[in-house]
Amino acid sequence: MRITVLAGGVGAARFLRGLKRAAPGAEITVIGNTGDDITLFGLRVCPDLDTVMYTLGGGINEDQGWGRAGETFSIRAELAAYGASPDWFTLGDRDFATHILRSQLLGAGQPLSAATEVLCRRWQPGVRLLPMSDDPVETHVVLAGPEDPGKRRVVHFQEWWVRMHAETPAADIVASGAAQARPAPGVLDAIEAADVVLFPPSNPVVSIGTILAVPGIRTAVAAKTTVGVSPIIGGAPVRGMADACLAAIGVETSAAAVGAHYGPGLIDGWLVDDQDKATGDDPALAGIEVRALPLYMRDLPATATIARAALDLALELR
Amino acid sequence: MRITVLAGGVGAARFLRGLKRAAPGAEITVIGNTGDDITLFGLRVCPDLDTVMYTLGGGINEDQGWGRAGETFSIRAELAAYGASPDWFTLGDRDFATHILRSQLLGAGQPLSAATEVLCRRWQPGVRLLPMSDDPVETHVVLAGPEDPGKRRVVHFQEWWVRMHAETPAADIVASGAAQARPAPGVLDAIEAADVVLFPPSNPVVSIGTILAVPGIRTAVAAKTTVGVSPIIGGAPVRGMADACLAAIGVETSAAAVGAHYGPGLIDGWLVDDQDKATGDDPALAGIEVRALPLYMRDLPATATIARAALDLALELR
Questions:
Q1: Which residue of A has its CA nearest to B97?
Q2: What was the ipTM of the complex prediction?
Q3: Whole-structure pTM value
């Protein structure tokens, strides 16, 4: 069976671990969000790709969900001693090695997809990990503030998310460069060849939304049997600050609103938590098959159960 | 008093520490060799500049004479796990931070001299440290081997020095790019404005020799009162494998031969060790004032004595 998954960071990585357990024989292709990517100290950092790679490859810091296990922070301390900025994005020494090697490969003219393949040769994530695009796409956040939209401050997503903790409301979130980006080699093929497409409980705006903003991907997904897993449980994001992102695009923070935001033209099935069972009766979700089950990814068995349910629903809907 | 010093790595750095002690009020400009520079993993590494900067700034690993004190080696281990090469050049995590920041500055279009100034703002070496040139110069070694010079293998100096331990004889040593290089801003001015110019006991071929190969520097030095300190004591280099370098350019490994190699057109005074006292009688050194004294830089006081002797001789010869 061929499964293609659109993935953000921590939530997607954990879901994928469950999916591998739930469907051990499946050929899984992961299309990773690169809108969160940022160049720090001249090095290209791809947080979502790395979180998936480290998690599935056994190198993740399990407690925080991102970064490497057993990290040290010599380089960070040294850069601070040099007065180099920014100081708000924490990178460990082990993690730095990944960014150094990736930047070397990119600097030598290799596309991000090829660099990702080189990195995955070590980590053997057990899935094919593709960046959504080899072209630069950066998620930018327009901060709420002055009435005049021309005077509003625009920051890189990471600055808003990490440095500002998404506390300043966003007036808009823009996948800068997405309209000109082409899907990376293999991306459209992987969607077209998939038996099912899954959306893990990733951020609907800055993870799944950004991937769908790359021309061609939304149409390809819409043509497939696609099932999503709600990242919102009981009106709150399970992890992260998806509510702040949803507010920016005028979508309510509820499992029903997110399902309706994707819409029946894109997804065929929608998994919600038991406490959001009423979602199934929402007329906004007409045309989408909604199933309720416990959605907290407490541990690997619980996560495998969720992944299995998503897969079963998709196979049923084909 | 203005002193300008042409500097390689460890020997020069230790000599400079002695010089600062011997002439606390002096304005010292150091012109550092960049021929040993190498790009590793996409990062620009400047071993000689960094050795001077770390040594004078109190960050050096005193035992080995290069690299940072209290190093860890996470990045090196990670890069090895990725199968990245080369694996023969050891860089510690703290040291990596210097190369990351320098590479970021260079990547943003700053010249090496400006990047060096930024790095020195942290280390406060107490001297003005200038790279000999902002243009790329790389010392390449032509390995002895096939009769046909066109078939001989050429390697980067660091590969010969570090990986091969200079065990394969060198047929020639070439400062590649030197002929096209321009002295970095301030270099010629610092030589012209100097009351004295000093050559520390650095490698006469791949350190001092490379600096002198940048057009304009040799002529500027020749016009000044210049005193050198022999890096050869009793027919052997005090440190490093200068003998292998001297052999490649057909110069005997002796204090007399190195003094004569610089020659009376370039240096005015030559300090040799007590055991090389006979050097003063060598007709090849006619026109050079030779002084003998203990030249082992055992500790800071001994080194300050050597530096003081070099300075005194230079002032005497002005």
A1: A75
A2: 0.93
A3: 0.94
